[in-house]
Specification:
Distance between the termini: 16 Å
CATH architecture: 2-Layer Sandwich
CATH superfamily: Histidine kinase-like ATPase, C-terminal domain
CATH class: Alpha Beta
Length: 132
Amino acid sequence: MRRELTIKSVSENLREVEKFVDEISAELSLSDEIYGNLLIATLEAANNAIVHGNKSLEVKLVDILLTVEETKLILRVKDQGVGFDYKNIPDPTAPENLEKINGRGVFLMQRLSDQIEFFENGRIVQLTFSLK
């Protein structure tokens, strides 16, 4: 299975992302736990791509690719930004960061997926979810 979605960098388009995940979840009969993890992680990745990667510039696009390979689901979210230093992300659970309103997206994606990888200097985030 392979599904793709491309959206403009407008926060309102996160509704399309949610619908995309809902349709895939129904088609694959995902458990509630995998569905919830996939939905939140996908929305976080797409939101980061819109806001941080593409700086909410509507002319820039976010590409979402979802593939299923045997017992795993792989999600790739790509923006058209310059990338970021994904190796030095502040820990949102550190006392000095607890009251900050940003900085939890990558942390959530790490916790909700079975594997997270970055490519193209952070312009692509790839999340893997076990379907076992």
